[in-house]
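job 3f2a | input accepted
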Amino acid sequence: MKVLQRFTTVSSKLGEYDKEFSIHEIFHETGSQKTGEIIRRENPTYQPKKPEQVVLSGPHIFVGNPLNKIPNKECLNSAAYSDIDFTVLKEEFLPRTLYEPGDKKKFKEAIPEIKVENNKESILDFPKIAFRYMCQAANERTLIGAIVPKGYTGINTLLFLTMEDFL
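job 3f2a | predicted structure (167 res):
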């Protein structure tokens, strides 16, 4: 009960900081496929060649780990993901994904921009914190988030947070 009482003593509200951070859903899993922004690839899954082609989904991340699991080369259901073995990764490793960029123009236009010193810049140009959209109380950890590298995007199973201090 003391924890809840403590919330009432906080003098500032989160809304007061809306200029210092932004939260984005980048691609809607269904809608973005219909518009051609992204294309689903299940068999085989998609292997990006550069960070700007990485479209993450929920299983990719875990607590503090932006490279937790990757879809198998054939990924026809939600259980078809494998753990990533960090002992054999090369520095240039990019995770396989279920989605690849679709139409280049539509893909680029769908990427949110943020205001940086009176300029608008793509959130691709900055690291972000990604959180799984769904929280499952039965899991070992309820809120699952990790810092993801520049260039990475994701579908709506993830929310992306960019902060002024990150920049």
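job 3f2a | The radius of gyration is 17 Å.
job 3f2a | closed
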